[in-house]
Amino acid sequence: MNRPRTLVPHRYLAIGGRGPEDVVADTRGRVVTGVEDGRILRLDRLADPDRARVTVLAETGGRPLGLELLTDDTLLVCDAELGLLRVDLTDGTVRILADSVAGEPLRFASNVVALSDGSICFTVSSRRYGLEQWIGELTEHTGTGRLLRLAPGADSPEVLLEGLEFANGLAAGADESFLVVAETGACRLTRYWLTGPKAGRAEPFVEYLPGMPDNLWRGAPDGPLWVALAGPRVPPLDLLHRASPAVRRAAARVAVRAPYRPTGTIGVLAVDDTGAIVHHLTRRRSRFRMVTSVCEAAGHLVLGSIWEHGIALCEPPAPK
User: Fold this and answer.
1) Mean pLDDT of 245-250
2) Which of 15, 63, 148, 167 could form a disulfide with 80 if both were Cys (CB 3.0 to 4.6 A apart)?
3) How confident is the model at residue 127 (pLDDT cuts 50, 70, 90)?
4) Contact 84, 77 (CB under 8 A)
């Protein structure tokens, strides 16, 4: 891995809501995000942050996490409480596409990507812990994360891959021959093949990441895949993951009750479709904490966070 470069902040922008967990850019350089109280927001005029405008587009009634824009007016939402949603951004209409898997309620849906054949793939971080107890999943290391697919016209999703360690961000390869899944609990990216001789199989894509990967975002099809690092690696946690299940369960019971504050070390990566890291930006002692998403918009690298009450606008890296 190349030596990391400094992540340079330009501006913090308050948005009138807590926890913009995922940020995605539309074709006009605007950013769409979801916040803790269920609102979907559009952030406009980011090229001139002094004139930035926040517009409420919809309310899911749950807790929106990962987002995928189908068009500038249609949005897919992974809602941690309600499941997989489709939102009309012109009138705020919310439609539930899937809220169960084989009769099991769909909870903690995390991130989503739409494919050109009309299918929708999305992740579930945990079948044991909900969003409010996410740290229990990372501590116990249950491996109950899933990758799901909702086929065109289907009423219920199918399971493509199980046993993932806190399945989180999701993105497709440029040619849609594979998907990349962020496994937050394992500090790695995993590739799941959709086509070709390896179709239906999973393999490591990028291992031993310097932090815990969260949401993934790709702009142009030929652009890099951006990876938000929600926090640095925690050596004691790596050690705990090698302990017995009983020890991990006991530690998880303590973790979900303990107060939590993110570290001041933040970072983002960009990788290409071979898994090579083309950018690694990091900052220590950052006042903006727990970066859970990243996208490029209006000349900025835009950071989202499930912890903060706004977004961070940073200097984008020079092209390689």
Assistant:
1) 91
2) 63
3) very high
4) yes
pLDDT tens sequence across 40-63: 999 999 988 889 999 999 999 999
Q: Kind and range of the H or E element at 253? A: helix 245-255
Residue 93 in tokens:
């209409």
User: Residue holding tokens 């084989």?
Assistant: 102
Please choose, from the candidates 271, 312, 275, the residue with its C-alpha nearest in 3D space to the C-alpha of residue 290.
312
CA of residue 225 relative to chain centroid, distance: 12
Provide the 8-state DSSP code for 51: G
3-state secondary structure 198-228: CCCCEEEEECCCCEEEEEEEECCCCCCEEEE
Determine the Cα–Cα distance for residues 61 and 10; give it in Å rounded to an integer.
33
* Rounded Cα gap, residues 100 and 104, in angstroms: 5
Strands 74-79 and 5-6 turn out to be: unpaired
Beta strand 277-283 pairing with 5-6:
parallel
Closest C-alpha among 7, 40, 11 to residue 26: 40
Q: Which residues contact 39 (CB under 8 A, 6 or more apart)?
A: 17, 56, 58, 59, 60
Query: Which domains, from first to last, does the chain contain?
Result: 5-314 (2.120.10.30)
- Token digits for 256? 């979900």
Coil, strand, or helix at residue 248? helix
Q: Is the pLDDT of residue 142 over 80?
A: yes
For residue 310 the two structure tokens come to 């706004």
Q: What token pair was written down for 238?
A: 């790596």
pLDDT > 80? residue 1: no
Tell me the pLDDT tens digit for each residue of 253-311: 898 888 888 888 999 999 999 999 999 999 999 999 999 999 999 999 999 999 999 99
Residue 104 DSSP label: E
What is the separation, in whole angstroms, between the first and last Cα of the chain? 15
Phi-psi region of 108 (alpha: psi -120 to 50; beta: other; left: phi over 0): left
